[in-house]
# Entry
Amino acid sequence: MHLQKPSKFISVKVSNVLRSLIILYLACLSHRPTLAAESLYWRTRDNRVDADLESWRLPKVLQAVAMSTGWKIYIEPGVAPIISTKFSDLTPAEALPRLLGGLSYALLKKNSGPARLYIYSSSVSSATELIEPPPNAQPVDADGRLTRELIVSLKPGSSADMDALAKKLGAKVVGKLNDGTYRLEFDSAADADKAKSALTPDEEVASVDSNYQIQKPANPESLALASPTPLNLKPSPIGSSGQVVVGLIDTAVQPQGTNVKDFLLPQQSIAGESVTDNSTLNHGTAMASTIMRGVSLTAENGQTSAKILPIDVYGSRESTTTYDVARGIAAAVQAGANIVNLSLGSNVDTPYLQRMISDLHSKGVLFVGAAGNEPTTAPSYPAAYPEVVAVTAGDRNGKLADYANRGDFVDIIAPGSSIVNFGDKAYMGSGTSYSAAYISGVAAGMAGPSKTTISQVETQLRQKLGRK
# Structure
């Protein structure tokens, strides 16, 4: 992609940003991110269980077990201990005592029909409350793959009838993107595997991929002894030119109680409406606030025409999927976003998501992604795609934070902590999510006050703030 020579104004601005980022490093406390708990994986094929649970209520644990095993699970009413445990490769007999918090249980297997699991504290007859899996929930494997789904992309110009093809394969079409990508749902993992073998050699099919789960990021922590800090930024007058729109692909944003409500466009939800607890700050709202603080570093005269377009890809669920992230990106760009913030990710490369990002990047959209909060060099996606500016976290000395990903795919190190206002409280958030949000905001501020293109801004970010 051909890029024009960056303007002198932008070079000066980025130099100022470097100075401001150093100040932010020193201002932010050394703080490790609070990570979202991992899932419970019951690998029915080899009869092994992996778990990494932090403060899960027992009914939630049992929902995951029921979803993966198909067991009918009954619990004694009122029994709901908090479960925190971590293990891998245990047999069900070894795993159950650790998952049930020391409660008694009886597992009754039948010659036909599902097994029955009873959990109780007094007697087996008291276990009368049936645990139902979450509505529309699907089992996932240890990689986070939704085992009963496939994502099928048709070749450009294909005349294939996907509805008819899905019916022939015993599947339902449960989603479609405008680029000819379809989400198929099957009755079983075996049916999905069989269909993948049938579809892969089809001349009308460009690719057959799996759909993967992405866990909801953790919310920030309240700071008992801190007071809210003002955001020294105002919206530019109506009619100002050069508006930049940052598509925020995340959880829902809470407009009330924040200092960024004047910079928010109407929120879109592609995963159903979320039930937001407005008594505490959530991740999406923290990202919006951090983006606007990044904007304030490069905005002229304390004003900006930059706006945030919140795209909720989680709804009321504890996870989203790579397919819904793709849907969110498409919705954001269609609504005018020219910067897309992706403070989320997984360790799985999904070709259909990269194709979408690559195509939109070639049309001038800037993507900024969080590198991940594991101190490894393993790639985290979508940040690891070459079209995405991958941002990892620094500590208060400007050095790589000890919890942050340091792979070769990382492009920029930015502050790994942010103090966010909500209501009359201040919250501390840490992790590469915040690092990415800072850089999205910096980019929006750089592009807004001049005729600098988004592509020129990306070049300047990589050259001036790039990881040495």
